[in-house]
Write a structure and sequence with these properties.
The radius of gyration is 18 Å and the shape is globular. The protein has a 7-stranded mixed sheet, sandwiched between helices. The longest helix has 17 residues. Helix 1 packs antiparallel against helix 3. The chain is 39% helix and 17% strand. The protein is of the alpha/beta class.
């Protein structure tokens, strides 16, 4: 297992490589979520800030001694690219055709760097799972489930099918009960969900957040999929905790795990039993 400084160096280099291959025209990204318009969303900053999220997922993989890893819904793929650079056998399940040709250069780059791209949407039913069945030591599903406008059951069933018995999953979702969202709802009467203007202006289907999760929600979903929670953590990454005002303003999110920004469950598929 490498240290945080080494991980950040590898990951941030991969972020640069991914962003260097982003298209000039982001309309394919923004078509179903106007929040992804180039003049509104700083993808570089988002990916760089996400080093905290992916470091925590990497630790789960490293401690499990996993070799083969499937990243479900990795989209811009900086994390799976990083894992490949760190010696894992990496696949990514993503329906890149959904974005037309906008992401072709990124997909080509991750393939050229040893990442197998599985053209599949894990949130839809697959009659034939033979290509993924019990193939992977570990699965990462990072900030995916909240984008579903329907049940996460199929997503979780496909993840379980892809895992070898005893395999691990890093399952991450944003916390619906994040303190600033609670404050905005109860004090200012603002929705905790995506702005209705964004939903209204986006084409069907809207690909932003449909349902964020509480800790009990996340536990329920993985339990229904027959996965055992071995550890859980909540954390914050979207604001600068070095600033005194932020520490005061967001104190409840820093003090109580139920009000933190992100939920990350470390789960395992039991040995034996139903597939």
């Amino acid at each position: 297992m490498i240290d945080r400084a080494r991980f950040d160096a590898v990951y941030l280099r991969c972020v640069t490589e991914v962003m260097d291959r982003m298209p000039d025209d982001w309309s394919a990204f923004a078509r179903h979520n106007v929040g992804w318009r180039k003049d509104r969303f700083d993808a570089t900053a988002y990916l760089r800030d996400s080093a905290e999220r992916y470091w925590r997922a990497y630790r789960i993989l490293a401690k499990s001694n996993a070799r083969s890893v499937l990243d479900v819904g990795g989209f811009l793929a900086a994390f799976p690219l990083s894992l490949a650079r760190l010696g894992f056998e990496v696949s990514i399940a993503e329906r890149y055709e959904y974005y037309g040709t906008a992401i072709d250069r990124i997909a080509g780059h991750v393939r050229a760097n040893g990442v197998r791209v599985i053209d599949a949407d894990f949130a839809t039913a697959h009659a034939d799972r033979t290509g993924i069945f019990e193939r992977f030591d570990a699965v990462t599903c990072m900030a995916v489930a909240e984008h579903l406008a329907h049940s996460p059951r199929v997503l979780m069933e496909n993840i379980r099918a892809a895992l070898k018995p005893g395999g691990v999953i890093a399952f991450e979702v944003p916390n619906l009960a994040f303190w600033p969202k609670r404050y905005a709802l109860f004090v200012r009467g603002e929705s905790v969900l995506a702005p209705i203007s964004d939903v209204y202006a986006s084409e069907v289907p809207f690909t932003g957040h449909h349902r964020e999760y509480t800790i009990s929600d996340a536990r329920y979903v993985v339990a229904q999929a027959g996965l055992q929670v071995e550890a859980e953590e909540t954390f914050n990454y979207g604001f600068d905790t070095r600033r005194l005002w932020n520490r005061l303003k967001y104190a409840p999110a820093l003090l109580f795990k139920e009000w933190a920004e992100v939920i990350l469950l470390n789960c395992r598929k039991p040995q034996g039993g139903a597939k």
